[in-house]
Fold these 4 entries.
Entry 1:
Amino acid sequence: MSIIYRHEFEIKVTSDTNTSASYLVVFLEIDNSVKLKTRPYDKRQVFDFPIGKSSRLAQDTISVSQSAVDLRDGKQEGFHETFEPKKLNLESESTQTSSEEVHVLDIQKKRRTNLKDVCASLNQTRHFLTDHRVISRHLVYYQDQDLAFCNNFKAGSTTMSRMFDFMNMYEKYSSPFDIGWEECSQRQKHPSVKNISEFNTNFSTSLKVLFVRDPYIRIFSAYMDKLFFPNIYYWIRLGIPIIKKYRDGASDKAVVCGHDVSFSETVKYIIDGYDSHSLNEHFVPYHGACRPCQIQYDIIGRTETSMDDLELIWNTLENSGTVKVQLPKIANRSDIENLDDKAGMIYKNRDRLSRCLSFYDVMKRAWRAFQMRGMIDCSITMPIKESDVNTTSLDRFKQILRQAYQQSNGELKSQCKRQAIADAYSTVLLEDLRILKQKLEADCELFGYDAEPNYIFNRS
């Protein structure tokens, strides 16, 4: 059989079977009645028409190829789809594509279409434009899979990095969550590029992926993880500078420890940092870190649909032969590993943390953080007494956290998180909230999120 390449319009030998031919993003298959059935990836229409018998199928496919070319018209300069047949999970009608798969592909099409439309109309002055060095720090390349991943911090970045590393480490580890974050970080390869054009040239055939989440929730998550939770590294690196700049009459302890940054102070930091381009990487907007209007991403994942999006990525790479292990189940595992990792962190830094808070207060702060992040039911109190702190080992604390997680009601956990988010934003001055909205509008529009969610902006 043969494959027709759009740019050359010539026949090239391929390893396809004698009952199928591939053309661009269209999969063609001949059934026993010599009927051609095909489905374009972008799902704009479904081909289903008979063709005459021929000694050379390739000659007939040329006659229908122009229809497929027409599907690709109307592309915008600097933003267009660059899918290659090796990367796509294209299935003909005869393979009975499941309704779930069609649904996921349709969602991806809508996300790309929205991104394309917004990029065409977006006021460039609203962009948080970063130079290529910032972009390189966010982009991670997995050579064996030819996968380029834009790693947006606080948008499932740790879980996604572990999942992608597991593709090449499944013989060493039984689960992605057995891979330590430090090992993940050390293994990451960041492509060194001089500009966006060079990246697009060097990675034109790579599968390019990014994950995002609701920008307002992302800010809350970053605050909880880096500033509210007992995180001595970020208390010093980020907390102290925020307190010094935004808090009049700060106590000596706060200035030295950076341990009690408020959410409203964090929002002020984001607003000012956005204008001065000096934001910590956990708050850099998606369009600044990943440049989705200049880099042509194939799959746009969202943390809200992470399992469906991961399955699409996994199946796509499986079809290309670059992944040889099944997609691991991550339901609940990510939360459990997070509880364990965070517990280990506070015990590792116990002495340093205790200079700012008693370790009993550290444990209570961690417990409250898990509740506000929707991991432990708010009605479950920490069962450790102050007198028991010195006899509570790390393993025992992990056990207590896991038990609380397993006993927690799913809906109550979600309610606790939603209330915590609403409460946090209620502390922000309305004037600051409106300015923050202006900063987040670009990301919200690009990725289909509400730029003015009622539960945050309704002050009645």
Entry 2:
Amino acid sequence: MASETALSQALVEPSLEGLHALSASAKRDESKVIIQLKSIGNAPILKQTRFTISAARPFNAIIQSLRTKLGYKAQEPLFAYISNSFCPAPDENVGDLFKELRSGRATDRQL
């Protein structure tokens, strides 16, 4: 019975570390990331190749923006790669991708 009470108290009373982690993750990243687009293969060339996007936006926002600019329909395939090497998941945050890939470019906010 005593172990059940301790377990129920542990589940009800959140730890201070847990509250700090939760509040830190709840804060929205207001920073911006510069996106530089380059066409590869026979992809159409865009007039504007650089734009800024909020770091909190998902990678899918870039894909949707490209679809609009290029006039692609939802059924048409569109592949967007980072550094000509990999295609991230559409729900991956742009800010998280930047943080993972910015090694060597600490002052440049470009992805």
Entry 3:
Amino acid sequence: MGANIQEWFKAFYATSDDGTAHEKYTTFFAEDATLIMGDNRVVGQADILQLRTGMWSKISSRKHTYTYYSSTERPDTYMLEGDVVYGLKAGGEATMKWVAKAEFEGQGSDRRLAFYQVFLNAGSK
């Protein structure tokens, strides 16, 4: 994983968008990390793996675009916003807006998500 945050997010979302990288995805999280995805809340890499695998049950592809923001007051916390385009197994595509809060532990190549919460359909009416 990249030493700087821009490289880290690039590697994380590339892995997130790879439908075969379920095990690798969990390595971006601390052992006891909390992941909240919409209404689903899991704790720990084993449960993150299970949630991740389930997320791919109805999609054949996905592609995230994002912007991230940070603050000098909370240097280990980032806010993100973006879109994700899903390729659906049933055919067609769907685009969803999202925002997220990412809290890290560790630095550089030891950086891992301790808490990651994604709000889906952010700003949609």
Entry 4:
Amino acid sequence: MVLQVLRPGEMAGELGFIDGLEHSAAIRALNNVEVFSLTRPELEKLLDEDRIWSIRSCAPLCALCTASCGA
């Protein structure tokens, strides 16, 4: 079952950074992909050190929260 197809630059697994819970889904690539992965401590360090990245990462997280609330 396909729930979503990610496009270049889109995030997956970001909900775990918000609620701290384990992943609730698996991700499978349909073809070759390049993946950028961060642990929670790595993300927190990046958010602390890079203000621009911090601001840019807020939009997809806010969209996810809005969608999950049904707004």
